Amino acid sequence: MMFTLNPNDTRVILIGASIFEDKKLPPLPAIKDNNVKLRALLGDVVGISKDNVHILEDRDYANQITSEISKIVSQGLDIIYYAGHGLPHLKQLYLATKKTESNDPESSGALLADHLVRIIINKSKAKRIIFIFDCCFSGFARENIDTKGKEVFLLTATSSVETAKSEAPENENYTAFTHELLVIVQIKRLSP
């Protein structure tokens, strides 16, 4: 099956969490570079307008993210990306925000991955949605998805029991998983 996107109708949300108040969650400065490079390549290679690529970085709480997503997703959405700390808690994946406490993500502002997936699937007009999770334990995001008849694709940096490599190869400023994603997109640019 051939998968294509219409760049004129494609909407993208890039969520990045790079700074945290909890000292147990180390900063991830490469995430800002991830988002900048992904936005540029989506424009240059895929042809998606920069106006249709929304970057949500370093929000304090999950409700700030979901509020912004609700506005964007009503126009349609095809790709949603999260890079930051993934925290397993009670057999679920929480996506860290700036105020997240590592020992209690559930009540300290982290975004429940299941909730994010549900919001996007329920509110998006897109028939095909790609979720990309660049975080530890990201395989948890694959569990319990009700696609509502839409084609849903998930790319995850790890299984539900693994931590992700945060550092990219030498002389690169991206997380390891996103670095590989960028390489693939750049190869697409070079192919005929």
General description of the model:
Strand 1, helix 1 and strand 2 form a beta-alpha-beta unit. Helix 1 (30-46) runs parallel beside helix 4 (176-190) and helix 2 (62-73) runs parallel beside helix 3. With 192 residues, the chain is α/β, with parallel strands linked by helices. The protein has helices spanning 30-46, 62-73, 113-123, 176-190, and strands at residues 12-16, 53-57, 79-83, 86-89, 92-95, 111-112, 128-134, 151-156. The strands form two sheets. It has a five-stranded parallel sheet, with helices on both faces. A three-stranded antiparallel sheet has the order 4-5-6. Helices cover 29% and strands 20% of the residues. It contains four helices and eight strands. The two termini are 20 Å apart.
Top keywords for this entry?
192 residues, alpha/beta, 4 helices
**Assembly classification:** single chain
Return Rg in Å. 16 Å
Number of helices: 4
Unreliable stretches covering 5 or more consecutive residues: none
Our measurement of the CA-to-CA distance between the termini, rounded to an integer number of angstroms, reads 20 Å
- Which percent band covers the strand fraction? 15-25%
Q: What can be said about the biggest beta sheet?
A: 5 strands, parallel
Shape: globular
The total strand number stands at 8
What is the spatial order of strands in the main beta sheet? 2-1-3-7-8
Helix content: 25-40%
Spell the H/E element sequence: EHEHEEEEHEEH
Structural class: alpha/beta
Could you report the average pLDDT, rounded to the nearest whole number? 86
